[in-house]
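Lab notebook, bench 4. The sequencing result for the construct came back, and we need a structural model before the next group meeting so we can plan mutations. Quick request posted to the team channel:

Model the 3D structure of this chain.
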Amino acid sequence: AEGEAVEAGLGTLCALAESSKRCRLAMVEQGAAAKLLHIAEQRPPPLPETALRCLVSLAGEPANGPKITAEPGTTDSLLRLIKASDNKVGESALTVLLAVAKDSENLWEQLVVNADIDSSVALLRLGPPRVQGQAVSTIAALCGDSPGFALCASPTVAEVLPVIVKLLSPPEHLGSDKSESPAKEAAAACALLSAAPVARKALIEANVVPALVTLLLRERRLGR
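Done. Here's the predicted structure in token form:
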């Protein structure tokens, strides 16, 4: 019964959030964002999905961004949801994060300072090209030197190396600008990561050499 009441309440909040700018501003002013995040993290499905749908609407209002991120732990909560096994929940949390994290440099710096490889990998898997480029660069920053070489042996990094190699082959109609394709960032990351023997072996097995050759030929053909 309690779950049904929460679900009904969330439905009402979603309807209000989607109805007008005035409602969206008032809801955030009254602390709705933190409560929605709590539900998204603590409640069983389908409540997280509904809570994040409402939060996506609130975060889409530009004036709400600073107020949402001002709540302690907001970014950490969103990153935990992005790493969740449910892709739909993760994608919604990513939409909120990208809407409110206007100063994205702080986000990536935070991931490096915290050595948060899991969040970086999750952002790489779920993000649009611009986010993928930043995530690849962050992973390389964490793993691409002597202190970080040990991370290259972790299952998380081993699983994502083939994903990085795939980024070297953008669709033909896309350019190499990071807003369209993270191919250049992926190439730079491969160069750094290959200094670690375990990563070099995994990259070669993922066919990094032919992928890099194809990328170089493509860039030459496009006159870059």
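The chain has a mean pLDDT of 89.
Will bring this to the meeting.
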